[in-house]
Amino acid sequence: MNKFVLTVAAAMGIATAAQAQTWDMPTPYGDATFHTQNIREFAEDVAEATGGALTIEVHSAGSLFPHGEIKNAVRSGQVPLGEFFLSTLANEDLAFGMDSQPFLATSYDDAEALWAAQKPVIEELLAKQGLKPLFSVAWPAQGLYTNGEIATVDDLAGLRFRAYNPALEQFATLAKAAPVQVEAADIPQAFTTGQVEAMITSPSTGANSKAWDFVDTYTQIDAWVPKNIVVVNQRAFDRLGADVQEAVLAAAAEAETRGWEMSKAEAEAKTAEMKANGMTIAAPSAALTEGLQAIGAQMLDGWKEKAGPEAMAILEAYEAR
Ligand code: PCA
Q1: Per the CATH hierarchy, to which homologous superfamily does domain 143-224+273-319 belong?
Q2: Ligand 1 in contact with 224 (CB < 6 A)?
Q3: Which of 16, 61, 106, 121 is the most exposed, having the fewest neighbouring CB atoms within 10 Å of its CB?
Q4: CA separation for the pair 224, 103 (Å, rounded)
Q5: Given strand 131-138, what is the order of strands in its sheet?
Q6: 139 lines ligand 1 (CB under 6 A)
Q7: How far is the CA of 71 from the centre of ligand 1 (A)?
Q8: How many angstroms does the Cα of residue 188 sit away from the middle of ligand 1?
Q9: Same fold, 15-138+226-270 and 143-224+273-319
Q10: Which of 36, 202, 209 to mutate to test the pocket of ligand 1 (most atoms within 8 A of CB)?
Q11: Rounded to the nearest whole angstrom, what is the distance from the C-alpha of residue 105 to the centroid of ligand 1?
Q12: In sequence order, what are the residues at sequence separation of 6 or more whose Cβ sits closer than 8 angstroms to the Cβ of residue 25?
């Protein structure tokens, strides 16, 4: 087919064998992560539904772009789509970080309600950057990994504490710990080299990093339920034929539903895996819960002072549910 015919075919959105394309998709987390597994299923569904017209090649564990660059790589069109941890964008707008506000949404029901309130605003904010959200999936609730039992917030003072977003950095600082930003894939090394000695993350990431190799206690503080998001470059999406676009959106909707189910199943299975590997699975003491919730309340007060109208609207919609 000559170039002219191809261009006309492309402009008309006609899928031809010659047009079959492959999309590279960077993701931050490793292959054992349920988010990655869910995304691979999404890619298979798209390939199948489009009869191979669109193939998505998943590049996991930050192998194509480091986590912190994935959003801008999609925005600039270097790659057509990618996944990242939504709340890492909280410095752009507080609306992005709300799922990581300590003790604001701590169950899956809360998290679903928060996402429903967040979604229209996130869509609008990302649309300004030429990005379109495809789906978002929650991690299991975030718990505390330490050596030895943490009876009160005071026990966290001075600990080198792994952080993964601005909210956790602030939370650790307010607990008088010393936050250090570390990507999930680097957790084992950060502990073995002494760069960090405690963290807050899900049982998924805890078990996948073999937390039992470097800490002995998991305290189920269930502090927040943060999400990953998959976004596509709007222009790349618009260039797809209408039938392919439809297939992508249908597979994305399925991936969102499936991902939340996988997350729920993981919460229990991965906690059991940590227990089976010798970790103590502890409930937080009343004093610890009280202390952590006080930090959460302080953070939310500060948040309200800085939040723009969009972020405030999310909070109000969520709280009015
Ligand atoms: N795992 C990711 C994000 C939240 C989670 O549970 C991490 O620890 O980086």
Answers
A1: Bacterial extracellular solute-binding protein, family 7 (3.40.190.170)
A2: no
A3: 16
A4: 6
A5: 81-85, 227-233, 131-138
A6: yes
A7: 17
A8: 13
A9: yes
A10: 202
A11: 16
A12: 39, 43, 56, 57, 58, 59, 79, 80, 81, 82, 83
* Among candidate residues 208, 56, 232, the one with its CA nearest the CA of residue 139: 208
Nearest CA to ligand 1 atom 4: 201
Domain boundaries, the chain: 15-138+226-270, 143-224+273-319
Query: Using one digit for the tens of pLDDT, what is the confidence trace for 109-163?
Result: 999 999 999 999 999 999 999 999 999 999 999 999 999 999 999 999 999 999 9
Distance 201 CA to ligand 1 centre (A): 5
We find that the CATH architecture of domain 15-138+226-270 is: 3-Layer(aba) Sandwich (3.40)
Residue 40: how many CB atoms within 10 A of its CB? 16
287-306: per-residue pLDDT in tens?
999 999 999 999 999 999 99
- From the CA of 207, how far away is ligand 1's center (Å)? 11
Encode burial over 174-184: b for 16+ CB neighbours within 10 A, e otherwise: bbebbbbbbbb
The pLDDT of residue 1 is: 40
Does the beta carbon of 202 sit less than 6 angstroms from any atom of ligand 1? yes
Give the number of the atom of ligand 1 that is nearest the alpha carbon of residue 204: 6
Q: What percent of the chain has pLDDT above 70?
A: 94
pLDDT for the residue numbered 17: 47
**Following CA atoms 231, 115, 162, 198 in sequence, which dihedral angle do they give, to the nearest 10 degrees?**
-140
Q: What is the pTM of this model?
A: 0.94
* C-alpha of residue 206 to centroid of ligand 1, in Å: 9
Q: Which tokens in the block code for residue 264?
A: 């729920």
Measure the CA–CA gap between 162 and 120, rounded to whole angstroms: 31
Nearest CA to ligand 1 atom 7: 184
Question: What is the residue with the minimal CA distance to atom 9 of ligand 1?
Answer: 184
Q: Which two tokens stand for residue 36?
A: 């990655």
